Please model this.
Amino acid sequence: MITLSTMIHCLLKYSALSAAVAVGLYTILLGLLTTSSFQVHVVYLHKIQMTWFQDLNVPESFGFLRNQVAPFSIRPSDGRALYVWHILPIELYRQHESTLLEEPSGFINDITSRTAFRLLRDDPEVRLVIHMHGAAGTVGSGYRVPNYRALSAGDPEKIHVLAFDYRGFGNSPGTPSEPGLIQDGISVVEWAMNTAGIPSSRIILFGQSIGTAVTLAVSEHFALQSPPVAFAGAVLVAPFADVATLVATYRVAGMIPLLSPLARFPGIFGYLSTLIHDTWLSKNRINTYVRINEENGQKYRITLIHAEDDWDIPWHHTEILFWQAAKAMTNQNIGFNELEAKKDGSKRNLGAAGTVMEWRTPNGIVREEILKTGLHDVIMGNPVVTMAVMRIFADAHSSLG
Model:
């Protein structure tokens, strides 16, 4: 007969064995995380395409109208092809539907020969949103397609969207890295300005998740040029402060912890943080970007959007970025808690819609929108994104006028 004590002994034995296996597997994970090749796959998740059974060269299979999307490639100076979608706004498509339907569909070898390109290049009032997506997937994955519609919904005749896959993602060859993704973003912006002829004052840079880090790095790059290049603005959805801060709480797929179990051990966590190859220091870049624009007297507009129920990137990362921007705007070393106390007396409480806070100077606006709901990806297709784009373009237009 199996006694109670025997059952307890067996239970404790198997519990200890399970715990040992879990610790062993986590130790192996930590060892793998110290290697650059494994970090690339964990940070960018670029092999997780999420469009395996769909052809990106057939955008109609993602819900678009025939030839509403023009798939093509940009070839930067290094010769590496970047796969791009040019998405026409729906009212503009309606106006030119018959012409667009006559053209062949599919991948376009010479984008400059197409009606869609001419509509982008030849309209002096055109607006363009350059979309920089997050980790995993392709230009056609998940909530990115609804996101494109939300971006152009504010002016369905004028707002075009340019979306692209970084190196190593989708149909863009190569291996992702921080310098590589930044160069990819720069190359797409340069194509928009130099080949399509769109003035930077009519361009918004949009980023989500890791795309926010690319957006800030690209914005900083152009702000440091001589003469500096200023865009209409930037919209950052679900941003993060830097990779080290992110991995302290991040769980892959919301379940598998990276370094969060070690965050309570500062010595070990600090050492492991030094082994991070791609650091993506967005909190430093937003500070530098704002400071440079203030020094140069350049106009800038940044909107930070985050949902409280984002389980991938906690919304306090947006608060950190807003704090770093505010320090540069005031040219004061204001503390985080001090700023939060000031915000409590100034931000608007919208109830179930969340809170909104704006910080302004004669040169710039930084807007923080914290929503109650929206998760990490769903939020991209919501009206808050449409309004952010409309608000920036409207303010940029009034400044030009």
Q: What stands out?
A: The CA atoms of residues 65 and 241 lie 38 Å apart. The mean pLDDT is 90. Residues 4-33 form the longest helix (30 residues). The first strand starts at residue 69 and ends at 74.
